Amino acid sequence: MTAEFATPHRTRSQIPASPGKPYFIEKGMGDRAHLFGDLFTIYAGGEQTENTFNFFTCEGPKGEIIPAHVHPDTYEVFYITDGAVRLFVEDTGGGQHEKLLGEGDFGFVPKNCPHAYRIERHHSRVVGVAAGPGGTFERFFETLGEPTDAQGLPGEPVVPEPGKFGTVPQEYDVRFLPDHQWHTPGSGRLPS
Question: Which intervals hold domain Cupin type-2 (predicted)?
């Protein structure tokens, strides 16, 4: 048996809208959203943790690199449970790093470090956790993408209108870097 809650973001959810309530969610039944070609599932966020951390998964097909972005006040963890994901990170000194992460591998992105990722194998899954003084950003996936009750990937990629990217930093600790260039071997772009 699972309980249904209303949240500020959804008319029905299995996640309580406030902290201090224990709850359980069956596999894949968190709050879901499609963004780009991926399915994001939120299991815990700011409302439940008093803005201390979030916990979500990202599932997707092999695809393009997602846009470079930065979280000025949030640390982010990438733990790969299925498939393979290439993580790109730029440290605060401007050094660029990339790593192909496979099942059981872990990647850490400090706050204020530009980063991006690309899913390298179909049916890959990332477990994400983010925390920091800036709060949590999990509801960004629904705001920029499309909330869904579906448990699968979108039939067509959900690509937000360009103007929508500009509204995100005001509410969430996510700032997109549209002109950012990666100069690592796996990015497909090397310095000239």
Answer: 61-119
Residue 135 is predicted with a pLDDT of 76
Helix (H, G, I), strand (E, B) or coil at 21: coil
Q: Which of 160, 145, 124, 112 is CA-nearest to residue 31?
A: 145
Measured in degrees and rounded to the nearest 5, phi and psi for residue 162 equal: -55, -40
Distance between CA atoms of 128 and 126, rounded to whole angstroms? 6
Report the amino acid identity of residue 174: V
Tokens at residue 103, please?
């099942």
State the pLDDT at residue 171.
79
CB 176 within 8 A of CB 168: yes
Specify the DSSP class assigned to residue 5.
Answer: B
Q: Are 125 and 59 in contact (CB under 8 A)?
A: yes
Distances (CA, A) of 98 to 45, 85, 109: 28, 10, 11
Strand-pair partners of 119: 85
pLDDT above 90: residue 57? yes
Per-residue tokens: 109? 């992105």
What are φ and ψ of residue 149, in 5° steps? -95, -10
115 close to 156: Cβ distance less than 8 angstroms: no
- Our CA dihedral for 119, 76, 69, 84, rounded to 10 degrees, sits at -10
